Each structure stands twice: as C-alpha cells, then as structure tokens.
C-alpha cells in the first residue's frame, strides 16, 4: 500500500462522505424540527433518482440541469407528505410514537411497491452525461468528476442551509419551532406551515443528492434502502437533529468507509461504518455534535 | 374592545371556568384576580385560542374569535404572555424579540417597537446576544412581555407576570404595564397578588372556582370589606 493509494482513497472517501452528508441532512432537519424520523427517506432519494433518470430519458436533460427541478419537485412532495400524512399521524391520541413510525414506514413500502409496479425492478442508468465516467487529476490523484461536483453541490447546499437558518426570518421561525412548537403561535407563526416547510426543505435536499447520485449509480426501486441505512448512521453519529452534525457525520462515514476498503476485503466495506457507529453509541450516545 | 360572554371551558371533562363574562374597554388595565385554581389562566387561554371554549363567545373589535387558530388570534392584535412565558430558550434575546415581528417581517420599520421595548426594559438591550435561558426569572418575564409587544398588539394579556420574580422586579414590571397602557395599548392581567394589581388597574374581576364572584372599578373592589378580609388580608 503506497502513500498515493491511501491519499487517493481518502480523497474519494471525503467526496462520498460529503454526499452522504447531503443525503442525511434532510433526515436530521426533520427530526430536529419535530422529533419524527422519516422512514421513507431512502424512498425520497429513490424517486429523486428516478425523476432525474426520466428527465434524461425523455427530455435528454443532463442530471446537472435537472437537479434544481428535481429538488423543487421533491420540496413539493415533502410538504405534501407532511400535510396529508404526518400532520395527522402526530395528532394520534394514543401510541403516537408507533403511529408516526408506521405512517412513514408504510409510505416507504407503498413508494417502493409503486416504483416496482410502474418502473419495473430493472436497474436503470444514465449512459452518458456531462460528468458520467469522467475523472480529473489533481496533483496525481484521480477524482471522479460526478462525485467531485456532487461534493461541491453538497458544500454549497450546506452553506445555503446555514444562511437560511441563521439569516432569514423563515429560518428563525424554523429554529423557534424546533425549540418550542407550541409557543410559535404566540408570535403569530403557524406551526403547520413551518413543519410543511421543514419537510419540503428536507426532501429538496435529498432530491438534490438523488439527482447527483443518478449520474454514477444504478436506479432501481430498492436503491434507497442501503443509502437510507447509511443516512441513519450518519445522523446518529453526528447527533440526532443536528444539521451541522449530519455534515460532519457524513464526512466521518465517507472516510471510515474508504479506510475500511483499504484494509478489509470489499465485501466487508460497511463493517467499519457500523463499528464506528457502535463505538460512538457506547461512548457518546448523543452523537458527536448532539446537544442532548 | 374585548367581550367574553358566558364562556365555559373544560379540560378532559373537568370544567375550569363556567359562564364567565368579562369586558375590556380600549385603554383600560383590567385585573382578573383570584386564588390558585380559580380559572384565571384558563380564561386567558380561552381568549388567546390556546384552549377552545366549550360554550360562549369571545368577541374582539366586533369579530368573533372563539374557535379561531391561536396564531390567527395573535395576528388580530392580541398578544398573550402565558404563565410559563414560553420563550425560545436556546435562541438569543435578539432572536426572541425579532421573532415577535415575524407577522410584519416585510415592513421596513420593524425596529420601531424594539425601541419601545428597550425604553421599557433597558436591561434587555444589554443582554441581546445572551441565550434566553441564561436570563434571570425577572429578565425572562421582561423578554416575554417584550416579545409580545413586538407583535404590535392592541390588547396585551399577561398571566401572573409576578410569578417567580424577586419583589423589586415585580414593581418594575407593574410600572412597565402602566407605561404600556400610556402608550395606547389595552392590558388584561391575571394575578394572584391582588393588592399590587389593583393599584395599577382601572377595573377588576374576582374569579372563584371558575365563576365571576365580583366585578367593579379597582377602587370599589379594594374598598370592599369582604375582599379586604378574604384576599387582601386587611
């Protein structure tokens, strides 16, 4: 193992980690806002990837161009999921936790079923796009362009989210609702609107990730499952509900995955991630940046 | 301005207030006094929309507001400071106040009410970057009132503003209430400390076990023999 191979895989790990962060941040945002885990998060990613694929297949739209469209569509989808399903699930008079879990879990099963029926279980891919299959060499390190651009988009998305939360009135309303949803009516804020906005935003972020992922990953009905598992680990690592934690957690997961691949056979690729996850859960159950 | 007619509100089957009627005229300070459990908080909650009355009506400036969503009632011009204040604990004093102006966020002059709040409670302006949870009880009450004033209300409702606050600050807060009224707002206060409340109030109601026991001008109430004996300890 040369120094170059190590740097090479750490660099790819970092890029992938930033994408993991982008996939996970919507989950963290929604959980932080209303203590609801979206078990359909992976399926949100799946439909974003399909949307990108079909925009390419029917309109020859490059994933980079369709990314903002897919994010916007997912925003609407997320808000509608809140307004039609989650809003009622959180009002359950008994067993609220279970009702919440099964409402989003049921949605996940439904979405996968619908995708299998209409899109068939076939693996699809976007055969040629602006970035697909291309690499760039920086100081002797080869980086795949889709992952590189994806990582840059992730950084930009996090920066935008930070600005939104800390510098705008809507962001402040989001923070206030996260602090005490029962108190925002005192200043005239409709918490349902804020929750819908939070779901929209969370879905838009995973939509952005899905558009980038569609460049270099197969699209199929179950594609969300493995990425969602990584997203749950990322969010738990970073600290449940912490947006910055999702960013940092994503980077940790990406790097750990890269290091594991260097040491262990590829089939054991995920062992490292879950090992670190267990370690964090034992030593610091609140996660790296969690506040509680 | 505000007219509460025969309002009955119950929690989980237990009636907290029944057939309560009160009126608040523009520019008044009205005090609703009574012992713990008399239904004072429930009355304010029923007006603010935090609880839905089971029967009766609440009218504000000629419009029925009972049954309306709480955030819409705030938008109508009723600011409510609940007993436990409900600040946003991990947000700064500045952000708490700024959230108060959320309803008119697109307007250019949203800092105007802020000057009034700082004049009323100068110590808030010294603590702008502090988290709300790090303030003392009295300062938190000031912030809660300040945040309510930021919504530019016509009617301000305070639930036990003196609770958990050292005596010196209680006086400061009651003096502030007078200045709020002098600035053109109407105030409805619910208090256990009847003597202090009657001092600044124009009119008062006494609630007992969910019903209006007595009503009148502040002078009438504080001059009443039974009240002096039962509530003022004189």
Automatic annotation (TrEMBL), chain A:
One Pfam family it belongs to: BPD_transp_2
Localization: Cell membrane
Coarse class of the protein's main subcellular location: membrane
Superkingdom to which the source organism belongs: Bacteria
UniProt keyword annotations, A-Z: Amino-acid transport, Cell membrane, Membrane, Transmembrane, Transmembrane helix, Transport
Record CDD domains: TM_PBP1_LivH_like
InterPro entries linked: ABC_transp_permease, BCAA_transport_permease
Ranges annotated as spanning the membrane: 6-32, 44-61, 67-86, 98-119, 148-165, 194-218, 230-259, 271-289
Topological category with respect to the lipid bilayer: Multi-pass membrane protein
Signal sequence annotation: none
Family in the record: Belongs to the binding-protein-dependent transport system permease family. LivHM subfamily.
Record-given protein name: Branched-chain amino acid ABC transporter permease
Originating organism: Bradyrhizobium denitrificans
Automatic annotation (TrEMBL), chain B:
Alphabetical list of Pfam families matching this protein: ABC_tran (PF00005), BCA_ABC_TP_C (PF12399)
InterPro entries in UniProt: AAA+_ATPase, ABC_transporter-like_ATP-bd, ABC_transporter-like_CS, BCA_ABC_TP_C, BCAA_Transport_ATP-bd_LivF, P-loop_NTPase
Keyword vocabulary terms for this entry: Amino-acid transport, ATP-binding, Nucleotide-binding, Transport
SUPFAM superfamilies: P-loop containing nucleoside triphosphate hydrolases
Domain ABC transporter, chain residue ranges per copy: 2-234
Signal peptide start-end: none
PROSITE patterns xrefs: ABC_TRANSPORTER_1, ABC_TRANSPORTER_2
GO molecular function, one term: ATP binding
Protein family according to the UniProt entry: Belongs to the ABC transporter superfamily.
Function of the protein: Involved in beta-(1-->2)glucan export. Transmembrane domains (TMD) form a pore in the inner membrane and the ATP-binding domain (NBD) is responsible for energy generation.
Name of the protein: ABC transporter ATP-binding protein
Record organism: Bradyrhizobium denitrificans
Taxonomic lineage of the native organism: Bacteria, Pseudomonadati, Pseudomonadota, Alphaproteobacteria, Hyphomicrobiales
């Amino acid at each position: 193992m040369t120094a170059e191979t190590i740097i090479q895989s750490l660099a790819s790990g970092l890029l992938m980690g930033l994408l993991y962060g982008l996939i996970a941040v919507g989950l963290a945002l929604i959980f932080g806002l209303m203590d609801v885990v979206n078990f359909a998060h992976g399926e949100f990613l799946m439909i974003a990837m399909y949307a990108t694929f079909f925009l390419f297949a029917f309109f020859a739209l490059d994933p980079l161009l369709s990314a903002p469209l897919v994010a916007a569509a997912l925003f609407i989808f997320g808000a509608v999921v809140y307004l039609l399903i989650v809003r009622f699930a959180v009002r359950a008079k008994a067993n609220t936790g279970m009702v919440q879990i099964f409402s989003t879990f049921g949605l996940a099963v439904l979405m996968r079923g619908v995708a299998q029926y209409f899109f068939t279980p076939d693996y699809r891919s976007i055969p040629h796009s602006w970035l697909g299959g291309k690499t760039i060499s920086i100081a002797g390190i080869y980086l795949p362009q889709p992952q590189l651009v994806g990582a840059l988009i992730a950084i930009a998305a996090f920066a935008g989210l930070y600005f939104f939360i800390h510098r705008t009135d809507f962001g402040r309303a989001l923070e206030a609702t996260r602090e005490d949803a029962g108190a925002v009516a005192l200043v005239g804020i409709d918490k349902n609107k804020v929750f819908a906005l939070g779901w929209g935003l969370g879905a838009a972020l995973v939509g952005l990730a899905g558009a980038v992922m569609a460049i270099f990953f197969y699209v199929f009905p179950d594609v969300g499952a493995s990425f969602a598992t990584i997203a749950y680990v990322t969010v738990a690592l970073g600290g449940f509900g912490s947006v910055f934690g999702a960013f940092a957690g994503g980077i940790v997961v990406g790097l750990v995955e890269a290091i594991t691949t260097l040491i262990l056979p590829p089939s054991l690729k995920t062992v490292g991630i879950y090992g670190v996850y267990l370690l964090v859960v034992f030593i610091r159950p609140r996660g790296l940046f969690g506040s509680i | 301005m505000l007219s509460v007619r025969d309002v009955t509100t119950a929690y989980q089957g237990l009636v907290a207030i029944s057939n309560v009627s009160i009126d608040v005229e523009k520019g008044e300070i009205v005090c609703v006094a009574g012992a713990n459990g008399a239904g004072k908080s429930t009355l304010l909650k029923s007006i603010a929309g935090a609880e839905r009355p089971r029967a009766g009506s609440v009218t504000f400036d000629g419009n029925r507001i009972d049954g309306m969503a709480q955030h819409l009632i705030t938008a109508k011009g009723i600011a409510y400071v609940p007993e436990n204040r409900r600040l946003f604990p991990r947000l700064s004093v500045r952000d708490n106040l700024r959230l108060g102006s959320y309803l008119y966020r697109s307007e250019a002059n949203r800092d105007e009410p802020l000057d009034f709040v700082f004049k009323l409670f100068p110590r808030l302006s010294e603590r702008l970057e502090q988290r709300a949870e790090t303030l003392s009880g009295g300062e938190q009450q000031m912030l809660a009132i300040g945040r309510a004033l930021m919504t530019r209300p016509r009617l301000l409702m305070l639930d036990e503003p003196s609770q958990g606050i050292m005596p010196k600050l209680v006086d400061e807060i009651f003096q502030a209430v007078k200045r709020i009224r002098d600035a053109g707002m109407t105030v409805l206060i619910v208090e256990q400390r009847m003597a202090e409340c009657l001092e600044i109030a124009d009119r008062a109601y006494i609630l007992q076990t969910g019903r209006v026991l007595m009503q009148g001008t502040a002078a009438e109430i504080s001059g009443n023999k039974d009240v002096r004996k039962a509530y003022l300890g004189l």
